[in-house]
Write a structure and sequence with these properties.
Layout lengths: L4 H12 L28 H7 L5 H9 L16 H11 L9 H15 L35 H4 L21 H17 L7 H27 L3 H8 L5 H13 L4 H16 L2 H20 L4 H15 L21 H11 L6 H35 L4 H4 L30 E2 L2 E2 L2 H10 L2 H10 L4
Antiparallel strand pairs: 1-2
Helix pairs in contact: 7-8, 8-9, 8-15, 10-15, 12-13, 12-15, 13-14, 13-15, 15-18
């Protein structure tokens, strides 16, 4: 008798994904991976099918990692590939707009098991059950399940170095892109805590990240050229005699020679779909939308306006947050937002109002967040626009503009007296000496709106 699916799925997870419902090929969904911003559980069924197409960014990555053999684009806890997901969609009568939640993935896994048995999973190592000729659609694309973080570095997603291993695990931790990204995020976080943050730091971190992205793209182009018998061009790129984008553009243009207008239009649509599916592009689109709503809310100094403004500010900080407007924000649904911002939002839910100074502060900081995100987005758009132009395509048709079109949001006027300098606290010192009035006025002028509100409630700056 064939065992129940709930029993057999443990062995499926052991050989396929380790039970990670967001698992991608080579764990590239994990911190530092190429697709660490991608969550299968946040995708609809149809979106997952688009993401897994062979010509998508994910499909091209998997193909490059398997240049000499067949390849598939596995997703989720059951490492389901595109063809199998299509089959399950039809068999289960799904519309396509259902989210790939763990519950739905379990339904899909059970359906595959019922139709094909354990032979559908090449990574499954337990006793075989089901049709003997079951086709193995879900390939064993992931290595064995790794142990959880044990040391300090592993808490930041940095696994122990394994000499000779491929990818980041074969590098010293300080040479890894994931460590450099983590260091950059920590630098920005510490900078935001300073009374006088460096306004240029975000741009500097973004520039370093963009330079590394361009270098990685160049290295991948060289790898692709060598794997496809074009080493002479790879050598010229490494010697700085040719630009990688120019070579790729020439290859794309050659492949387009003789195509009619309908084929050209299809290339434009495919290129646009790939561009808009990039994690950085989707994130900027969400940030721009939230920024526009923040601006609309800032001009409405009401309880509803305050709630909408800080909610959209939180969405700018963490576009992937699952908190819904009007719900209490916590570490589970808004983990990328600081405790202080979540506390302010929750206090507004309970009837508290923002001061004029706080509104002005949220608009100022929201504008800086938007400008930083726009700078990173523009770098990606310029790079893909260059690829499109070298391929003979109109960049304007390939690259949609997701930027906020309303201009810089005006800072709300302070009319409630919240900008007045309050009396200096007694007993405060600077470097062991009693604080002077001038020092207090300078300290107050540099304090954020939240810090000033903390002072009004507690009598001291935090």
């Amino acid at each position: 008798m064939r065992p129940d699916f709930d029993i057999i799925k443990r062995d499926i997870f052991r050989g396929e994904s380790g039970g990670d419902y967001n698992a991608l090929f080579n764990y590239q969904n994990r911190p530092g991976g190429l697709f660490d911003d991608v969550k299968i559980t946040d995708m609809s069924v149809d979106a997952a099918l688009d993401f897994a197409q062979p010509r998508s960014g994910y499909g091209n990555y998997v193909k490059m990692a398997n240049p000499e053999g067949e390849y598939a684009t596995p997703m989720g806890a059951y490492q389901v590939v595109g063809n199998t997901l299509k089959m399950a969609k039809r068999g289960l009568g799904l519309r396509g707009d259902e989210l790939m939640t763990p519950a739905l993935q379990d339904r899909i896994g059970r359906y595959i098991y019922d139709k094909q048995g354990t032979g559908a999973w090449a990574g499954y190592k337990g006793p075989a059950y089901g049709p003997a000729n079951a086709k193995q659609e879900a390939a064993p694309m992931l290595p064995a399940q790794q142990q959880g973080p044990r040391g300090l570095l592993e808490q930041f997603g940095l696994q122990k170095m394994q000499p000779g291993a491929a990818g980041e695990t074969g590098q010293k931790f300080y040479q890894r892109d994931s460590f450099k990204d983590a260091a950059g995020r920590m630098a920005l976080a510490f900078n935001s805590l300073r009374l006088n943050p460096d306004p240029n730091l975000a741009g500097m971190v973004a520039d370093v990240r963009n330079q590394r992205t361009e270098k990685n793209a160049r290295n991948k182009t060289v790898e692709y050229l060598r794997a496809n018998g074009m080493s002479q061009y790879a050598d010229m790129i490494e010697a700085g005699q040719l630009q990688a984008s120019a070579v790729l553009g020439a290859i794309m243009q050659k492949s387009m020679a003789g195509t009619d207008s309908s084929k050209t239009q299809k290339l434009i649509m495919d290129a646009r779909k790939e561009f808009t599916s990039l994690p950085g592009v989707k994130k900027f689109s969400d940030v721009a939308f939230s920024y526009s709503r923040l601006g609309a809310s800032s001009s409405d100094p009401s309880a509803a306006g305050d709630l909408a403004m800080i909610f959209n500010f939180m969405k700018m900080l963490d576009p992937g947050a699952s908190v819904m407007e009007g719900d209490v924000a916590n570490a589970q649904n808004a983990g990328g937002v600081s405790d202080r911002i979540r506390s302010t939002y929750n206090s507004i839910l309970n009837g508290k109002r923002l001061s004029d100074t706080q509104r002005a502060d949220f608009v100022t900081r929201g504008t800086k967040l938007y400008q930083s995100a726009q700078s990173q987005y523009q770098s990606i758009a310029d790079q893909y626009g260059g690829f499109a132009q070298n391929a003979g395509l109109d960049p304007g048709q390939v690259i949609p503009d997701f930027s906020y079109s309303g201009g810089e949001i005006a800072i709300p006027e302070v009319t409630d007296g919240s900008s007045d300098i309050p009396p200096m606290p007694t007993g405060d010192t600077v470097n062991g000496q009693p604080m002077t009035q001038a020092q207090w006025e300078s300290l107050w002028s540099r304090a954020s709106g939240e810090d000033k509100e903390h002072f009004r409630q507690n009598g001291r700056l935090p």
